[in-house]
Amino acid sequence: MKHRIIFATGNAGKMKEIRLILEDLGCPVLSMKEAQADPEIVENGVTFGENAEIKARAVWACTGDIVLADDSGLVVDYIGGEPGIYSARYLGEDTSYDIKNQNIIDRLAGAEGEQRSARFVCNIAAVLPDGRVLHTEAAMEGLIAEKPAGNGGFGYDPILYLPEFGKTSAELTIEEKNKISHRGKALEAMKAQLKKVLEEEF
User: Fold this and answer.
1) Residue 174 burial (CB count, 10 A)
2) N or C: more exposed end of the chain, with fewer CB within 10 A?
3) Are 186 and 137 in contact, with CB atoms under 8 Å apart?
């Protein structure tokens, strides 16, 4: 039996990145919408890992497939690690990212150089058909930009400046971003674990 991999997201931008990385596992990769799974998910974990697992388990309970979910966010050192696990809900879920991004830049007024250190963190949880859970976590380090730049990506991408590239995350191509992004690295690590599982068991 060929296993399906379901990713617990409805975000089309995210699905594009995910499919690019996971396509060579040889399993169809579906969003939860495509798998017709729409459980009520209450993200009440206190870490990225707990929230990722809550999402993955909720969709797995509906489908029984290999279910992956990620929880990721922006961690800004100068403001005590905010917005962190509340990145999507920061200033309210319906607030535009233009406003969220500007708010973070404003809160770092006066911070210079390394004081502007920040990173995207991503934890991926996978629930296997037998109920076992795998986790991977990775980060993409950078600095909060003085002003937003770039139209690629989504969310906080325009304000995380990556010194080694001389541009923000939103100015990278999708291929560049997958190589170094928090989600790209966590997904590559998860892909390696899933490869082993698929070879051993199925």
Assistant:
1) 15
2) N
3) yes
Contact 52/76 with Cβ under 8 angstroms? no
Q: Which residues of 24-55 are buried (b: 16+ CB within 10 A; e: fewer)?
A: eeebbbbbbeebebeeebebebeebbbbbbbb
pLDDT digits (tens, 9 = 90+) for 110-145: 999 999 999 999 999 999 999 999 999 999 999 999
- Does pLDDT of 1 surpass 60? no
Q: Round to whole Å and give the CA distance between 69 and 55.
A: 6
User: Other C-beta atoms within 10 Å of 74: how many?
Assistant: 28
Return the CATH class of domain 5-201.
Answer: alpha beta
Give me the pLDDT at residue 90, please: 96
Tens-place pLDDT, residues 40-90: 999 899 999 999 999 999 999 999 999 999 999 999 999 999 999 999 999
Q: Is 70 a catalytic residue?
A: no
Of 93, 79, 92, nearest to 159 by C-alpha is 79
Q: Which residue has the tokens 């325009």?
A: 158
| Lookup result for tokens 């409805």 | 10
Is-contact 125 133, C-beta < 8 A?
yes
Tokens found for residue 107:
């809160």
User: Catalytic: which of 71, 77, 94, 157?
Assistant: 71
Q: Which two tokens stand for residue 76?
A: 């800004």
What does the angle CA 96 – CA 157 – CA 17 come to, to the nearest 5 degrees? Answer: 105
